Amino acid sequence: MNDDAKRKLTTEKESREVNGLENIEEKSNQENITFLIKGLSDKNGLVRRIYAEELGKTGKAALPELINALLNSKNVIQRRAAAKTLKLVKDPSALPHLIEALTNDSDPVVQCSAAGAIAIFGEAAVHHLVNILESQGHTEMQHGLATWCLAFIGAKAPNSIKKAAQSKNTNVKSAAISALEDHIRQTQDQEAIQLVKNSINDSAHNVQIEAIRLVGKLYKIEALIPILISKLKNKSPEIRQASVLSLMQLNVKESLNQLKELLKVEKNKKVKKIIELAIKKINTEKI
């Protein structure tokens, strides 16, 4: 064992002794749970982690007080720690309460911690996240966290994600299309690929852009290359930019002539620089 590991173990042992945790029972009674919950407000991060780990071992019995701390504590440190601890407990009955913390807590760190816990519940969390994305009453940050959760869940809930990718709500659809990345990479699911293909021509720009970006992150899907090239003529500079970047990522040699033609007429300075970079990269990249 190296010196750093020894110091860490010594520090954790001292923390447990100082904070009355050395002799706590493995199966905590209600008194011990209350004691551990209180410890989540400790200012020392290492100490909070030790309390959280003990509560994680306690499991479902700790849920009522953990949820109460998450939703009702006036101590923001305790609320943050409660959200992270619920991730350790891994009980899906906490999910609606984590959603409430994500959407109602005034502290952005609590919202982020709640999102981190929500994401581990996979398919069970998808419809909650879709509800957040559908609502105009939530903030841009909350929508962003819901999108991140869907991406994290990804291949763990492909059917639910594919269903969301057919939503009439553009926020849901764009988030779900992006979340299909791992699933397509792992399975080459033709239904999912068709959803991406359809989305490249979606009426909503944000959906188009997510689909175009996704194609650039995947293996070279030959059927989608002509569609990407056609997007170089789109009126939207954001769509042209996304298309150029994806063609560059995929090293599409057959797009060089179109890129050179676009460079001659492109007026957007940012897009023009990206076109120049793409031409240079594709020209020098080995096949």
Describe what you observe in this structure:
The chain is an all-alpha fold. The chain has three domains: 8-121, Leucine-rich Repeat Variant (Alpha Horseshoe); 127-219; 227-287, Leucine-rich Repeat Variant (Alpha Horseshoe). The protein contains 18 helices and no strands. It has helices spanning 3-18, 30-39, 45-58, 63-72, 76-89, 95-104, 108-118, 123-134, 140-153, 158-164, 170-179, 181-187, 190-200, 205-217, 225-230, 237-249, 256-265, 269-284. The chain is elongated, with a radius of gyration of 24 Å. Mean pLDDT is 90; it is low at 5-10.
| Helix and strand element order | HHHHHHHHHHHHHHHHHH
- What is the tally of beta strands? 0
Which CATH class of the largest domain?
Mainly Alpha
Say what the CATH topology of the largest domain is: Leucine-rich Repeat Variant
Number of helices: 18
Low-confidence stretches: 5-10
C-alpha geometry: elongated
Protein traits:
71% helix, mainly alpha, Leucine-rich Repeat Variant, 287 residues, 3 domains
Short summary of the structure?
The chain is mainly α and 287 residues long.
What order do the helices and strands come in, and which of them pair?
Layout: H1 3-18, H2 30-39, H3 45-58, H4 63-72, H5 76-89, H6 95-104, H7 108-118, H8 123-134, H9 140-153, H10 158-164, H11 170-179, H12 181-187, H13 190-200, H14 205-217, H15 225-230, H16 237-249, H17 256-265, H18 269-284
Helix pairs in contact: 2-3, 3-5, 4-5, 5-7, 6-7, 6-8, 7-9, 8-9, 8-10, 9-11, 10-11, 11-14, 13-14, 14-16, 16-18, 17-18
